[in-house]
Automatic annotation (TrEMBL):
SUPFAM superfamilies to which the protein is assigned, alphabetical: alpha/beta-Hydrolases
Keyword Aminoacyl-tRNA synthetase: no
One Gene Ontology molecular-function label: hydrolase activity
Source organism: Porphyra umbilicalis
Keywords: Hydrolase, Signal
Protein name: Phospholipase/carboxylesterase/thioesterase domain-containing protein
Pfam families: Abhydrolase_2
InterPro entries assigned: AB_hydrolase_fold (IPR029058), LYPA1-2/EST-like (IPR050565), PLipase/COase/thioEstase (IPR003140)
Family: Belongs to the AB hydrolase superfamily. AB hydrolase 2 family.
Signal peptide residue numbers: 1-25
Keyword Protein biosynthesis tagged: no
């Protein structure tokens, strides 16, 4: 039986070889609703019923990348999840929670939780395949994660999005990044250096979906607060560590939250993402640069990433440092040879990511 084919679209895969949509420059300040001619993609749906969530997480579809940007050997195999059962190959149990704020699942560790990782997935129509990454990470270091929870909310759905001229599909995205992707980032996928990337991010003229960023920020803050509560009731003395980790568009979201939120965090690790809405933040001084937050932030780039190239990540780290000089220790590291997706499956790449998490957890 042929597996049902599902579109895999990691962040910005849509841009590669597309070149179609003309760059829309906006000189006017952002107003809501925006004044651009095309309809604003407000049609997002954040929560689904328990049955829909359970179905989604149980998906066992083989993924394909219609763009060809992700080599077939890098495409992760599916890891179907069953609510209430173990994550296959691990001692963690899948707890599904369809309602707010999580709208996703928690991986409960075998031992009382002393730490939690809030994990934000990337831009995709198949968010469930991130279970493969989580499984690879947990199995790479069972002792490290034996008392670590993982909370994985699913992003709001933008209905019937036609990306790449493929048949319309539902895409999960923390905010609408289409304008940014088709203007700023598109110019940076072809070997731009760090200075060029930084200038482009600072001068970014794309319309920021500030409402989407705001709503997802508030929701993730609520997830973070819940996780902190779960650690306290889990018996951790004085509360344990809560980390915010994201990949791709989820990393962009995590970066934004680190900049604007006062949520109590013990570390933020955006993997292969970027700083969204930099121009607005730089202009408005909206970031909370107080000394209250003393966490470290480590932005990870992949040396072989052609979707969000490492210089974009490094440039984002520079901007974040600028915005948060007093609040956080900001570091950029690059994992040599890592593409946008090849750390999903067991191997040296996922071990490198686990090595970074270990520094934050131990
Ligand atoms: C997922 O699909 C593969 C290949 O079709 C199959 O071997 C495997 O048993 C399926 N897993 C589950 C949990 O259904
Ligand atoms: C989905 O989008 C396609 C074109 O992109 C359109 O023809 C179709 O009517 C849309 N379907 C729904 C249910 O909105």
């Amino acid at each position: 039986m042929l597996p049902k084919v599902s579109l895999l679209l990691l962040l910005v895969a849509a841009l590669i070889g597309c070149g179609a949509s003309p760059a829309a420059a906006f000189e006017e300040p952002y107003v809501f609703p925006p004044t651009r001619p095309e309809p604003y993609p407000m049609e997002r749906r954040t929560y689904r019923s328990f049955a829909e969530l359970a179905d989604l997480l149980a998906s066992n579809d083989t993924l394909v990348d219609p763009t060809g940007a992700v080599p077939p050997e890098d495409i992760p195999p599916p890891t179907p999840l069953t609510c209430g059962r173990r994550l296959p190959g691990t001692a963690h149990r899948v707890r599904c929670a369809a309602g707010p704020p999580l709208g996703g699942y928690v991986l409960e560790p075998p031992q009382p939780a002393t730490a939690s990782i809030v994990f934000l997935h990337g831009f995709t129509d198949a968010p469930w395949f991130y279970a493969t990454f989580l499984r690879s990470a947990l199995t790479a270091a069972p002792e490290l994660f034996a008392s670590v929870r993982v909370a994985a909310p699913l992003a709001p759905v933008y209905r019937n999005q036609s990306v790449f001229g493929e048949r319309p599909s539902d895409f999960f995205a923390w905010f609408d990044a289409a304008a940014f992707l088709s203007t700023t980032l598109e110019r940076l996928t072809d070997g731009a250096d760090v200075a060029t990337a930084e200038a482009a991010l600072r001068a970014d003229t794309a319309v920021d979906d500030r409402l989407g960023l705001f709503l997802s920020t508030r929701r993730v803050e609520a997830v973070i607060a819940r996780e902190r509560g779960a650690l306290r009731t889990g018996g951790a003395r004085g509360g344990g560590r809560v980390l915010l980790v994201g990949h791709s568009l989820g990393a962009a979201m995590a970066t934004h939250i680190a900049l604007v939120s006062r949520a109590r965090l013990d570390g933020v690790i955006p993997m292969q993402g970027f700083v969204p809405a930099a121009r607005t933040l730089l202009a408005s001084k909206e970031a909370y640069n107080s000394g209250e937050r003393r966490y470290a932030m480590e932005l990870l780039g992949g040396g072989a990433d052609r979707i969000v190239p490492a210089p974009v990540v490094e440039a984002s780290a520079r901007i974040v440092k600028d915005l948060l000089p007093a609040a956080a220790r900001v570091k950029y590291t690059v994992q040599a040879g890592v593409s946008h997706s090849n750390f999903f499956s067991p191997g040296p790449e996922v071990k490198a990511v686990v090595g970074v998490l270990r520094r934050f957890l131990e």
